[in-house]
Design brief:
Layout lengths: L2 H12 L4 H8 L3 H10 L10 H5 L24 H10 L7 E5 L6 E5 L9 H8 L13
Antiparallel strand pairs: 1-2
Helix pairs in contact: 2-3
Length: 141
């Protein structure tokens, strides 16, 4: 690697570019860029965005959050706040799906999973293995 490439890596890394983008821009391998940056402690500059500012406080209680570098940004201060928020705002998460059960034909709501086929485990067992259980129509719903 030439001195010019090293200088370019330093400049691009300070602008916040990742290893892959730098490697493709300079025409060198990603592992070369990564090892050079790690050996020289070159950290990408973090440019604050509007979404980063929103994530600095807990969505439920508004308490300031302490973010850990190199980890997924925290949205809630603890699990109680997270549970309270999602219980109060289910429409913010995954959408509810109305699905017809393949075993009994009953319409049921599935939270976020559109691949679900059965309303519950017993219905699945009764439909897939009818000799081992009570037919869906005869069981108490």
């Amino acid at each position: 690697m030439t001195e010019i490439q090293k200088q370019n890596i330093e400049k691009l890394r300070q602008r916040g570019m990742g290893y892959k983008r730098i490697a493709s821009a300079l025409g060198i391998s990603v592992s070369t860029v990564k090892s050079f940056c790690q050996r020289n402690n070159l950290v990408a500059a973090v440019i604050p965005t509007k979404s980063d500012a929103d994530k600095s406080v807990c969505k439920q209680c508004g308490k300031p959050l302490e973010q850990t570098p190199k980890n997924k940004p925290k949205t809630f201060c603890n699990s109680k706040c997270r549970n309270d928020y999602w219980n109060a705002n289910p429409e913010q998460g995954q959408a509810m799906q109305n699905i017809v059960c393949a075993g009994c034909g009953r319409v049921f709501s599935s939270y976020g999973s559109r691949h679900r086929k059965y309303c519950d485990h017993s219905c699945y067992v009764n439909h897939r293995f009818p000799k081992e259980g009570i037919p869906c129509e005869q069981r108490a719903i």
